[in-house]
Write the structure tokens for this entry.
Amino acid sequence: MIKKHFFLWLIPAVIAVGILMAYILIVFNKPIEVPLKQAVETPVEKPIETPVEMTEKAQKDSIIEKPIEEPVQDRGPKELYKIQAENVLSLEFISENEKLSFVKQGLKWSVNNDNYNRIDQQKVISTVENILSLDSLETISFNTSEPEKWGIRQSSQIIKIHTSNGLITLFPGSVNPSQTGYYLQIKGKDEIYLVKDSFGETLKLNLDDLRDRNLILFEKSGIETLSIQNEKQIRIIPYKKYDQFTADKFSYMLEAPYNAYIPVSKEGLSTFLNTLSPSIQIVDFIDEGLPEDFGIDENSSRLTVKEKDGRSFELLLGTVTDSSKIFGKVTGEKQIFTLNRTDLSFLDLKPFDLVEKLPHLISMESIDTFMITNDDLAVIATIERRGDRQMYAVNGMETEEKSFNALYEKIQELTLSGESRQIVNMEKPEIIISYKLYDGGSLWTHLNFFSYDDKHLAVARNEEEALFIIERTQLNEMLKEITTTVDKIMGF
């Protein structure tokens, strides 16, 4: 009876346990469902995502949830371009106010297709070299849709570099706020760069900045001829012996204004040349008008220089302005300019300033006799050459070389004091100094002194015009000393 009741109790218990086990399995194997409107109170551990899943998710999040950003790229300094100088053909600088065009012609550069703007070649070369290579200080932006933001105006501010390999076009912008550089865009690239501030200085160039203001540059020792054409008509040419007596010790002589060849003194020429180079500077450039509008024509005053290497330079001068400036231009050039009148001291040069002041510099080696005569005196001094020996005599009396030379030196100490400016009566000289050429037979040359005024005598060579004057006191002193020397030689 007991067994029967046990089994009756056991069967329901087993069934209950089975039902409980089934319920437990169902409950614990089913995912927990969170209602949509109910906040999750306990974080749920998520499964670990694979790298592929992470990348896909990041891309999805960046597209949907984050604003658009520029890609992370290198913004540091970099070389933008580099050009070999010999490959540059031309440059163009275009701005709102001016256009400069540099064209290489052989070894020189012309600006704006004009060779006559007096361009300083070194300044042009420096400008070209400044943009042959360009490095960025920083890449400012990878978005060029609004270049105006950086002061870049592609229609009015352009630099074009024409090379044998193609064209590079630059669009310069404004200076950055810290004044350390300029913004720049290069055609064909999608970046805005910051470049060195010296590049910006190149953008500020204008034609006047490139002009050569040094007017006269020549080697003083290389002059072949030099002339000044105004009321004085001065012309300097290389020296050549104009007779067989004059000492061959000069470099130049005057062909004009005198009616005879006159040796140029070394001191006078040096002083004159020092007024020419390199002190003459152009003040202003005149870009409109014709030369004749400024008094420059075939009758203009001019300075002409020809150098020994064949180069020549001619400066034409026109009207003097109220501000003491004078208009001018260089022959062969179109450019008109102004100069300070005070810089043109050569216009005030007096021909006599260049004249060798010795009346007739005779080399003793070229003569064997000299004579000094006037109404009261006659001195004849001779040199007799016998091989290596030389015999000296004065008025037939043999004398020492020292005494002979003393007479000769007194003559050579005479110096001219000015130009003759009046008609001279040349019928009879007051004093004559004569020289006879050694081994020249009866070839003589004479230095004649004619009456001029109470203080001066006029001087003339042979039959030439009396061009210069000398102080009477010099002649009187010379005659006095010569008389004393001759008296000693003669034993008086």
Observations:
- The mean pLDDT is 83.
